[in-house]
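Blinded run. Sample ID left blank on purpose so nobody reads anything into the name before looking at the predicted structure. Input follows.
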Amino acid sequence: STFTQGALVDTNIVAGTFIAGSPDCLWDGTNLFILIQESTVLARLYKYTYDSTSQTYTLIAGFPLSLPLTGAGTNTSGKFGVFTLDEDSTGKLWAAYAGSGVGGDGKVHVIWSTSADHKSWDSAGFVLATGISTSTQEAAPIIRFGANKIGVVWSNQVASEDAFRYHIDGDPETVWSAKEIIDSGLGPQGLGSVAENHMSLKAAPDGRLFLIAKDNDGTSHLHLYIRTAAGIWGQKTLVINDFNANPTRPVLVLDTDNNEIHVIYKDSSATGTSRTFITQSFMNNPAFNT
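Blinded prediction complete.
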């Protein structure tokens, strides 16, 4: 879609019939991938080529591809959680999801493609963690980072922690690092924990990871966590300093040309009246503006 004179105009840049669900999209420089979770037992992967002359996307034969899921759940309103997608340095696609909420199995799952054309998958996958909530949804964003790694962050509201594991490209798909605890315990007001299911994860070219995660402490807060290229989660910064705000649904954008972090979020408090805000910081020694 594009904006024209303040109006949102649907340009139908991607042709295809989609069943409503939770989507994630990936452009790898050659192909556009759209992954949509359609139910607790099924996701579909779409793969497109792009014609720069006509500026159109064409669905590749054999797609959409059906991917069976195990242990996925919903929230109390029947909505799915977040199913995330990325591609490693070898061209293998990886997808992660949390088996949380109603009907969930309490596990963090990762699945992967097993052919160069991405038409074959190991949908049984590998379990990264157990013991996450089956009463409310968790989050499990996946990211390619460094020169040769794929990583998954997840929330665990049962253990009151956010955690991370990574895989080195080319290793057996079931070989992952030990769990790294990003944060655990109570939030800044001491009313709830640091874990919630709103997360946004980005990688910098220098190997650092930047994570925005929401807690469930009172009106809730957003925190920035930075993992150094050496593998240390060493920086935690409060994003919104107004404790009367209720920031939710963060989207993190890195402007590496200008060394800046942008966080877009919704303020769901009474004073925020559900408006959308943006705040910025430098990537080094972050401190967000007001």
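Unblinding after everyone has recorded impressions. The radius of gyration is 19 Å.
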